[in-house]
Task: inverse folding
C-alpha cells in the first residue's frame, strides 16, 4: 500500500472540501429565489472498497462523499450504516443552517456503531 505524504494529504483534504464550498454557494443561491418545495435527499451508494453518500438537491448532487472525511486516512466508509449515519448528520446540519462539516469525534462515533 502506498503511503501518502503530508503534502498529498493536504491536497486531498483540500479537494474534499471544495464540494462543501460549492454547497454553501448553492444553498445561498437557492435561498435567493428558487421554487419552494425542493428537498435535500440523502443517497447511500456502494463502492468497490466500501460505502459513500451523496446529498442531492433538485436532482443535482451538491455533496459527493465517497470517503470518510475528518480522519487522516483516505478510505471509504466501511459499511452502509456508517455512511448513512454521517450522511444523516450532515443533512440535519444543513436543515438547521449549521456548519455541515463533521468532526473527527463524530466520524469515530459513526464508525464504532
Result:
Amino acid at each position: 500500500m502506498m503511503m501518502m505524504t503530508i503534502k498529498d494529504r493536504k491536497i486531498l483534504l483540500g479537494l474534499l472540501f471544495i464540494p462543501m464550498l460549492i454547497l454553501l454557494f448553492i444553498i445561498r443561491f437557492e435561498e435567493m429565489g428558487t421554487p419552494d418545495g425542493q428537498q435535500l435527499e440523502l443517497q447511500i451508494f456502494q463502492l468497490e472498497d466500501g460505502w459513500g453518500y451523496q446529498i442531492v438537491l433538485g436532482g443535482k448532487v451538491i455533496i459527493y462523499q465517497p470517503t470518510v472525511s475528518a480522519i487522516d486516512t483516505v478510505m471509504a466508509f466501511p459499511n452502509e450504516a456508517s455512511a448513512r449515519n454521517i450522511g444523516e448528520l450532515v443533512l440535519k446540519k444543513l436543515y438547521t443552517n449549521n456548519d455541515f462539516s463533521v468532526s473527527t469525534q463524530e466520524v469515530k462515533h459513526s464508525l464504532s456503531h
Summary: The mean pLDDT is 81.
